[in-house]
């Protein structure tokens, strides 16, 4: 399935799942492929908890520890475009236009009848599912409700009450805004270009094996002469998201961001060229 094919770079999807995608990028330079990887990691905006106001915390974890754990919980960001960046909003601190509030209040009551019974587990696990959001489009990712993200464990008599403020941002500011868990990136699986230098004891094929992506390319002929001018033009990319966005949405947003950046650069270069032409007459 080709989603971009206009005479320039082409993208062919090899596998598409709920939280992961494999695709092949062709007809472009290595720098463009690597730029796409970096934009997917660090420049696609998402929602994440940025402020935590703790009213009560009698758990074993400090306020800072809990705030950090809350910040790293992925939040659904499918509708992130309607949220403004705080720096662009006209409010003084935060408002519904640039933020979403989530509250948490858990208190474990003491049951004196069960206190001395060792067979009863008196631990209360506080998870991301306990967070109550003010906007259903921005809430903790909860695909696996049987094993939700743990925030803290509490014992009878303990209480935690707090308010979180989720804001829009990118991972260049903090990793919590990254929409992906990881991106694998490979080209030239047969190492025809000699860009990889393997540490070998006896046999390269036995010790390193062959990449699964090698099935997409022609094996190297041992008698094939080395081409010093050859460059890679086919890249195998696998994206795994945190669940805050669909993987294809992350890729498409990253491509759009790259186009906007390159378009802005082209306009500036054209303006500079026109100014130089008017100034120097050539």
CATH H-level superfamily title of the largest domain: DNA-directed RNA polymerase, insert domain
Proportion of helical residues: 10-25%
Spatial shape: flat
Q: Quote the distance from N terminus to C terminus.
A: 46 Å
Q: Architecture of the largest domain, CATH level 2?
A: Beta Complex
Q: Characterize the biggest β-sheet.
A: 5 strands, antiparallel
Give the helix/strand class: alpha+beta
| Count of discrete domains | 2
What are the secondary-structure elements, in order, as H or E?
A: EEEHEHEEEEEEHEH
Q: Which residues form runs of ≥5 with pLDDT under 50?
A: none
Strand segment tally:
11
Count of alpha and pi helical runs: 4
The CATH topology of the largest domain is RNA Polymerase Alpha Subunit, Chain A, domain 2
The overall pLDDT average reads 90
Query: What is the beta-strand fraction?
Result: 25-35%
The radius of gyration over CA amounts to: 25 Å
> What is the top-level CATH class of the largest domain?
Mainly Beta
Structural account:
The chain is of the alpha+beta class and 282 residues long. The chain has two domains: 1-44 and 231-273, RNA polymerase, RBP11-like subunit (Gyrase A, domain 2, 2-Layer Sandwich); 46-177, RNA Polymerase Alpha Subunit, Chain A, domain 2, CATH 2.170.120. It contains four helices and eleven strands; from the N terminus they run E-E-E-H-E-H-E-E-E-E-E-E-H-E-H. The strands form three sheets. Strands 1-2-3-11-10 form a five-stranded antiparallel β-sheet, with helices on one face. It has a four-stranded antiparallel β-sheet with strand order 4-9-5-7, covered by helices on one side. Strand 2 (10-16) and strand 3 form a beta hairpin. Helix 1 crosses helix 4. The radius of gyration is 25 Å and the shape is flat. The mean pLDDT is 90.
